[in-house]
Amino acid sequence: MDYDQVSDQERLIIRFPYVTGENTPKGLAAKKFKELIEKRSNGKIEVQVFPNSSLYSDYKEIEQLQKGNVQMIAPHTAKFSEILPEAQLLDLPYLFNNHEEVGELAEGPVGAEISRLLEKKGFKLLAVWNNGFKQLTNNQKPIQTPEDLFGLVFRIAHSEVIKEQFELAGAKSIVLPFNELYGALEAGKVQGEENTVSNINNKRLYTHQEYMTKSDHGYLGYFVITTNQFWSSLPKDTKTMLEETIDEVTEWERQTAAKMEEEQYLQLKQQEDLSIYELSPKEKTEWRNTFHSTYQWFTNKIDNKVIEEYIKTK
Ligand code: LMR
């Protein structure tokens, strides 16, 4: 598209808050999106990004999007679990083997189905961005087997699937927003948490955690989303520019996420006070088997053929 042709509309402001730090896949992609859109629209569209929960915490930002106070958000898919229980598919332990499989899901029939379901709830799904795979940290003991989780208390994002995963191992879980996580670890309100390498590194979550297990036991990614109402208010050429730019940023974001996961893992390994245990491929298979009953548990909770068919392949 020739972006000079974009409608001579009134100035448009897109407010885009997010909860992670800036040096994360989401933070860098939000910045890139802002730069490209402002350049391509010759400044007619301004994208205001608010990192680090500086505007709203993660549950609030969905509410504020619905109210029209912000126009774009990219929350962890688990944070949609109340609005869209089917989104918890992405929380199933060991659902993906690598970042490419996430792209295949997002661009395939399951992605289209999730987009359709979100649309019925008033949301327009623009893209799925990756962060990476979740790891476990805690301040009590090294965790090598799922049995080692027994009795520990972990902070989780709101998702019944994630809660079930910890319950299966006899661990407790407490739902807290991301911006309260560091404080909860510091105060000992929870003993551990699960998160990606870039979030653990960027938010210095290791500060009050002695142990980390490189388990890669689950996926953490984002629904880049707006409302149907905002989307339908935009001129056609603005929509095209936004869509083309988001597609471009999404491709870049996914590559960046995979690269950051490797690079920031090396940085975590430099932390002298953090002892890291890396599961072997064989151990990962054992962990996967331990938690695999969550797949049937989740299937029983939803009623969606497309998603059920996908789960059967796993
Ligand atoms: C978390 O709450 O742990 C993550 O979802 C934060 C994020 O947005 O990556």
From TrEMBL:
Coiled coil: none
Keyword hit for Transport: yes
Keywords (A to Z) from UniProt: Signal, Transport
One Pfam family of this chain: DctP
PANTHER family, alphabetized: C4-DICARBOXYLATE-BINDING PROTEIN DCTB, PTHR33376
Similarity comment text for this entry: Belongs to the bacterial solute-binding protein 7 family.
Protein name: DctP family TRAP transporter solute-binding subunit
Source lineage: Bacteria, Bacillati, Bacillota, Bacilli, Bacillales
